Amino acid sequence: MLAAMVVLLCSTDSGAHTFVNRSEPRAGATLGESPANVRIWFDGPVERLFLKLHVEDGDNRRVDMHDGRVHPLDNTLVEARLSPLRPGRYRVFWGVVARDGHPREGTFSFLVK
């Protein structure tokens, strides 16, 4: 009985975190033109109040429009508009809090040719 409860608690806790399902642009992508925005889909809803999302160029200058948001019709999607990007490498920084209070953060990069 005790072993079953431990397994149940561990599996419940491990499923409590929100993970990235996909992004546009994809992590590591090489693009032929500047994307209009960055979008990240998660496997569960995220809290609007705790979203952090911004994009920097190779000189650590912010290139998004400072409008990162959780999509109003899909609380698993976060997005930010981008200014027109010149060729170079860009890094996306994100941080979210799942509905159950667990924080997650990460980064990924993409290249514009």
Index terms:
4-stranded mixed sheet, mainly beta, Immunoglobulin-like, 1 helix, 8 strands, single chain, 113 residues, 4-stranded antiparallel sheet
3D architecture notes:
Strands 1-3-6-5 form a four-stranded antiparallel sheet, with no helix packed on it. Strands 2-8-7-4 form a four-stranded mixed sheet, with no helix packed on it. A hairpin with a 5-residue loop joins strand 7 and strand 8 (103-112). The model is unreliable at 1-14 (pLDDT under 50). It has one helix spanning 2-14, and strands at 20-24, 30-31, 37-42, 52-56, 69-70, 77-81, 88-97, 103-112. The protein has a single domain, classed as Sandwich (Immunoglobulin-like), CATH 2.60.40. The longest helix has 13 residues, at 2-14. The chain is mainly beta. The chain has one helix and eight strands; from the N terminus they run H-E-E-E-E-E-E-E-E. 12% of the residues lie in helices and 40% in strands.
Q: Assess the beta-strand content as a share of residues.
A: 35-45%
User: What structural class do you assign from the helix and strand content?
Assistant: mainly beta
Number of domains as seen in the coordinates: 1
Helix content: 10-25%
CATH architecture: Sandwich
CATH fold-level name: Immunoglobulin-like
Q: What's the total number of strands?
A: 8
Number of helices: 1
What number is the mean pLDDT? Answer: 89
CA-atom Rg in angstroms: 17 Å
Order of helices and strands: HEEEEEEEE
- Sequence of strands across the biggest β-sheet: 1-3-6-5
Distance between the termini: 59 Å
- Biggest sheet record: 4 strands, antiparallel
Just give the CATH class.
Mainly Beta
Stretches with pLDDT under 50, minimum 5 residues = 1-14
Morphology = elongated
